[in-house]
Amino acid sequence: MNRRTFLTSAAATAGLALAKPAFGIVTGKTKLTHKERVDRALRGQELDRPPFTFYHHYKRPTAEQEAQDHIDFHRKFNTDIVKVMNDFDYPKSTTENWWELKPLDNPYPKQLKTLEIIANGINNDAYFIDTLYGPYMTAMILFQSQPKYANLPKSEDVRDESIRDLHDFQIAHPDQWHTAIDAITESTINHIKNLNRIGAAGALVSVFNAESKFGPVEDYVKYTRPYDKKLFDVLAETKLTFLHLHYLERPYLEQFTDFHAPVLQYSVKTSGIPVSDVRKLYSQAIAAGVDEIDYRKLTIEEIRTQWKQARKEAGAKYIATPGCSVPNDSTDEELARFPRALGI
Questions:
Q1: How far, in Å, CA of 114 to CA of 187, rounded?
Q2: Closest among 289, 293, 294, 284 to 342, alpha carbons compared
Q3: What are the CA-CA distances from residue 287 to residues 191, 201, 266, 320 (Å)?
Q4: Which of 23, 140, 193, 296 is most buried when burial is the number of CB atoms within 10 A of its CB?
C-alpha cells in the first residue's frame, strides 16, 4: 500500500468512526457528567454509555413532598435527566360549562414550586425538565370531569365512551372547542415562560391523541395540531424538550416532522413501530426502547437487549428510556434494573 492509498483509506475509516460513534473512553475521560452525556447524545458524539432517564407518578399533595421524591429518585438511580412529573390538576371552569375557560397567568403554581425546589436540590447536577399535557389531553380531563363521567366507575369502556363523546363535541360545537383549547394553550405558554425563569432545560409535552380512537388524522389536523405546534414553537430554543407521542399509530407519524423538539419519545411496545422507521423521518435524538408496560417483569439482560437494539436503530442520537412512565408500584429492586442494564 502506497502513502496516498494509506491516507485515503485512513480518512475513510476515520469518517466512518465519526458517523457511528462507539462507546468507550471519550477525549481521555472514562466517565462523563450527566450534562456532558446528554449534550454529546444530542449532537451524536462519542459516549461512555447512552444517557438515560425514567420515571413514574408520585401524586403527592404538596410541592415539597413531590420535589423530594424526585430528588431522591434521581440520587438513588443516578438518572442523567430529571424528568419532573406534573401531578397537579389544571383549574376547572368556574361556570357549569367545562369549555368556558380564560387564559391563566399561572395554571400550575404547585408545579412551579416543585420545580424550584428540585432546581435547588439537584444543585446543577443534571438537566431537569417539566411534564406538560398537550392541550387536547388537558381538555379531555376537563371534559371527563363533568358529572356524567365523574360519577361512573373507572373502566376502559367508560374512558373510550368519553373519548368518542369528546370527538362528537368537537364536530358539533367547534366554537366552544376552540375557545377551550385556545385558553389552555395560552395558559400553558405562560407556564412555559415561568419554566424558563426557573432554569428548566425544557419540557416533555405529551401529545395524547395520535391514534385513530381519538378521531382520524384529518380531525387531528383540524382540531388539535395547530395548538400542539404552537407549544413546540414556544419551546423551540430549549435544549431538552421532548415531543412525547403518548399514543401513536403509523398514519399520524408524519404529522410532527415540523415540530421543534430536540428529542422525540414514543412507545415501541404500544405503537408496534420500530425505532428504525421513526429514524427515517426524524433526525433529532430518539428516546425509546424499554418496555414500560411489562417493565416490572423485565430482567436486567432483557432491558439491556432492548436499549441496545433501540440504540442500534436510532444511531448516536439516542437516549435510553421506556416509552412512558413505568408502573407506580415498581419496587426499588425492579427500578434499579434499568441503571444496572446500562452498567451503572
A1: 18
A2: 289
A3: 24, 16, 7, 6
A4: 140
Q: Which amino acid is at 192?
A: I
Type and span of the H or E element at 313 = helix 300-314
Walk me through the domains of the chain, giving residue ranges and CATH numbers: 32-341 (3.20.20.210)
Q: Which of 174, 249, 240, 171 is nearest to 207 (CA)?
A: 249
Residue 179 in 3-state DSSP? Answer: helix
Q: Rounded to 5 degrees, what are φ and ψ at 129?
A: -130, 150
Q: How far is it, in rounded angstroms, from Cα 197 to Cα 201?
A: 11
Cα–Cα distance between 275 and 277 in angstroms, integer?
5
Which residues on neighbouring strands pair with residue 133, listed in sequence order? 206
Of 34, 16, 63, the residue nearest 124 (C-alpha): 34
Q: How many CA atoms lie within 13 A of 336 on its CB side?
A: 5
Q: φ, ψ for residue 177 (rounded to 5)?
A: -60, -50
Euclidean distance between the first and final Cα of the chain, in Å? 44
> 10-residue block means of pLDDT along the chain (344 residues)?
37 36 53 96 96 97 97 98 97 96 98 98 96 98 90 82 96 98 98 95 98 97 98 97 98 97 98 98 98 98 98 98 98 98 96
Q: What length does the chain have?
A: 344
**pTM score of the predicted model:** 0.90
**Nearest CA-CA partner of 41 in 212, 298, 146, 32:** 32
Residue at 74: amino acid letter: H
